[in-house]
UniProtKB/TrEMBL annotation:
PROSITE patterns: MYOSIN_MOTOR
Name of the molecule in the record: Unconventional myosin-Ib
One Gene Ontology term from the biological process aspect of the record: actin filament organization
Family statement: Belongs to the TRAFAC class myosin-kinesin ATPase superfamily. Myosin family.
Region annotated Actin-binding, chain positions: 184-206
Domain Myosin motor: 1-307
Amino acid sequence: QDNSFEQFIINYCNEKLQQIFIELTLKEEQEEYIREGIEWTHIEYFNNAIICDLIENNQTGILAMLDEECLRPGTVTDDTFLEKLNQVCATHQHFESRMSKCSRFLNDTSLPHSCFRIQHYAGKVMYQVEGFVDKNNDLLYRDLSQAMWKASHSLIKALFPEGNPAKINLKRPPTAGSQFKASVATLMKNLQTKNPNYIRCIKPNDKKAAHIFNDALVCHQIRYLGLLENVRVRRAGYAFRQGYEPCLERYKMLCKQTWPHWRGPARAGVEVLFNELEIPEEEFSFGRSKIFIRNPRTLFKLEDLRKQRLEDLATLIEKIYRGWKCRTRFLLMKKSQIVIASWYRRYA
């Protein structure tokens, strides 16, 4: 019920993770169809980039204004920080405060004067402004970092690289919010170089008990995690896509015209292959560089046919090898019989 600076930066990280989820699933998925020339009706979804910008913008973001309050001379309190937020973020559609210049929330009794509220992608969260400045300014003194770096234990020394005398920086150490923002940026950069697989966990109830499902809680999570939009995109789109060359290489043994070698463009080979297998036209689409398959059952059918064909080819190879081996043995015995007979006639 009481959210402070710690929950604020945790929710900021959740916003960034949701943003990369949107980028890699909803946005990139639909852009690929357009890029490949596939007929597609755009499905709308909520992009939380506006919330991330509210928090991390270098000029008007909440973290930037918090750092500015911590660094500026004069009397600095949590109230002055909130006052600054009320001035800069008053008209932002995801920021709410009783004291802002915007009069929308002047009579909102659910929002105390010493709090502000952010409409996150997963719902509204109210933050108690008390302690924000002190917690953001809670820095480790430079002499303590140097003392830790001089420790004989290698792990402790590695945890405080800023204590290295060769790297002494006379500038003020970064605030807690700045360090967390930099860590989140590093995490996002790392995730964007990977090919992630998402597992969405739904909390069935608040009691941490088995066999209890709170319908309202589950629906709330499904709605705000972006799962409905994701399901719409997946159902309207294609379950599988692959480049023409790897697709032809994998399934070319299913068609006599493409096996063992196809002389021509890979796309033409895939077209011949799918026509030979009599796959319904509504089950696939040809993009500029990829083949798109709509339903998983079509892919499963291809895999089953490939598995059966590999077994048939293995049987064929075994049959030919056994025939060659038997014929080779027969020819050797026939040659030996002729040699023996010729020598026998010579001495008879």
